[in-house]
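Risk register update: the risk of archive-format incompatibility is retired. Evidence:
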Amino acid sequence: MKVILLQDVKKVGNKGDIVEVSEGYGRNFLLPKKFAQEATAENLNVAKAKAGSAARKKAQDNDEAKLMAAQLAKLTVKIPVKVGANGRLFGSVTGKDVSDVLKKQHNIDMDKRKIALKSEVTGPGLYEAVIKVHPEITSTIKVEVVAN
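Archived output:
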């Protein structure tokens, strides 16, 4: 029996997949629990239209993320920090600091969990941070740590 999955089902498939299952499994489990619907001609057309729409939306999101990554790559962020007598930092510079400065200086709202510094910030200087713009797309920005 062919069915169109309405939800992710373990060991069967993901939402929107058209799969072949046994008659009993489909009639007694998947259909009554609304995990799937029968794969009639009408339902297949609707499922294919939804899949095409989802593919277009994903492509559009990818394009927007690439554009955002290109814009972010041009940025340099200056972070003022307290520095001791021997040039060592008081505290540390984290993704949260980079996120706050991006918001303040460039009005770009980025989640701190999507920002990772490539190397440990040990003193004033130029460092790089990787920003995960999209699950498949990352961008690198320059982080300039300056003594306050």
